[in-house]
Design a protein that fits this description.
single chain, 162 residues, mainly beta, six-stranded antiparallel sheet, three-stranded antiparallel sheet, 11 strands, 39% strand
């Protein structure tokens, strides 16, 4: 059996030992052309700022959920965002007046909101992770996928889904 990593050499006792591999030869020819890499990092937002913005873009929500449950958009459904009497933010998905699903957000659990392009979605969709947990080990407590990125200047006029 051949040892891994390096060139084998045989010691006096007959057992193989590893000798360091010679350094790779440098060539003027490159196998992989150099290229610039852009690393896209997420933007962090305060929860209150994100919530105010999201309420103005409720019809842009594509999915919302937790690690246990997801609510998905559909052409005959609509989203409703509000706060209950205890000021707990609530995301609801409805068909007409019938409540199909609801997520209550414990805002005290959310440290910040991380915004990034949705790695699993179509071009232009953004994933907003509501991050909680401890400072050493934060994790996404809730998430919302929106059809576009965070832009406080953008306004939508109310319209019916088609």
């Amino acid at each position: 059996m051949r040892p891994r990593g390096g060139n084998p050499s045989w010691s006096q006792g007959g057992a193989p030992t590893l000798a360091p591999s010679p350094p790779p030869r440098r060539s003027s020819a490159r196998y992989i052309p150099s290229m610039s890499v852009t690393v896209e990092t997420g933007t962090t937002l305060a929860f209150d700022r994100f919530w105010r913005w999201l309420k103005r873009h409720a019809n842009c929500i594509l999915r919302a959920g937790t690690s246990d449950a997801y609510l998905y958009d559909h052409e005959d459904l609509h989203w409703h965002l509000e706060e209950d009497e205890d000021r707990t933010p609530t995301i609801q998905v409805l068909r007409g007046k019938q409540l199909l699903g609801e997520i209550l957000i414990e805002a005290r659990e959310v440290m910040f909101v991380q915004a990034m392009p949705d790695p699993d979605g179509d071009q232009g969709q953004f994933l907003f992770e509501l991050v909680g947990g401890s400072g050493e080990e934060p994790y996404a407590v809730y998430h919302v996928v929106v059809a576009h990125g965070f832009d406080e200047e953008a306004q939508h006029r109310p319209q019916l889904k088609q």
